[in-house]
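Now for today's protein.

===
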Amino acid sequence: MQHLLTDILSTLAYLKTDYQKKLNMIKSFVIQAAKATVSKNFETHARYQYLLNSEISELLNDASLCIREIHLWKEATHPDDLSENDIESIKNAATTTIEFLIGLTKALNIKLALALNEHVRSRGFYNEQDMSSAVQHHGRDCWLGSYKLPRLFHGFLEKLNSSFIFVKRESDYVYHDYHLHQWCELFLGLAERIEILLADLYSGLGQQGNLSHEGELTDAFTGLAIR
């Protein structure tokens, strides 16, 4: 029994660490993608190769799996059986997600000022209306000339922000309600949408008769990949 408990705690510690690692890699992808430019004649090639080499859909799927496992473990454990380490691991997942939300907002170069939500029992870490306005008025920047890719991340950012519910403030600490399973679905949904985008880009390459250049493009854009 002691070995089983040690294994569970070790797994939770691994999931917590791996989740944070994946979120940092996703944020790095966004920072680089927002600044990536390419010749207009090769936009379709570049977008396809960039997304393929970055493995961003895999990273999003891995983040989804990590938080899903933490959620399933939490749901399978009676509240009275939760140790301080258990509770801390769950809180850490929430803190990591909030930090990711803040970092992603900066990475997407949201220019409008976002007010923190302080209306009790209302949705949003940031004020929902502020976030919605910021996303709607935000340009696509570089993103290899793509409008679909930043739109996907803007929609994800808006939903991730709304996944938090402001509960209360005590001194300088703010309490939020959240649902781990909802984050799992958000990451998985974005991964699926990027896979669809990849399929559309690949189809576009076929229509242009440029699939024979795929090997050359892989070499040309390897430097853009997130590793």
